[in-house]
Design a protein that fits this description.
By secondary structure, the protein is mainly alpha-helical. It has one helix and no strands. Bound molecules: zinc ion.
């Protein structure tokens, strides 16, 4: 099965599955969840790690 080059189909850059967007909704939600989790960890620490 060869995909036609004229038919430009986007693929998720995370799971490489056909998606209309750069990142499919599922991966986007996953990434968003990770970001939220990261933010929560920073808030939990009380301050950002700026003096690394
Ligand atoms: Zn994906």
């Amino acid at each position: 099965m060869v995909e036609s080059p004229a038919k430009k189909k986007h693929c998720c850059s995370v799971c490489a599955k056909p998606s209309e967007t750069i990142i499919c909704q599922r991966c986007e939600e996953k990434i968003r969840g990770e970001v939220v989790d990261k933010k929560r960890n920073i808030e939990k620490a009380g301050k950002t790690d700026s003096s690394h």
